[in-house]
Design goal:
alpha+beta, GIY-YIG_endonuc_sf, three-stranded antiparallel sheet, GIY-YIG endonuclease, UPF0213_domain, GIY-YIG_endonuc, Excinuclease ABC subunit C, about 90 residues
Amino acid sequence: MFYNYVLQSLKNKMLYIGYTTNLEKRFKEHNDGLNQSTKPYRPWKLIYYEACLNEKDAKRREGYLKKTQGQRLLKRRLKEYFYQDKNHNKN
């Protein structure tokens, strides 16, 4: 299986989108600082993932999720999560 995933930085709420064959290992690598692009924004929280059987499908989906239309889809897909998070920070 190939997993597309979305991480959110607990430091600044930034989102990171990627894909991998081993989601648990990759998530640990991000939080252990083994990825230079995500290291400064640790710790990370896994907020979404989906699985594909084909690597090309996963790569295409990753690219889509990184574009404006894909970002909008994620915001709609995770509407309650972002709404809850926004209200939680106000209190």
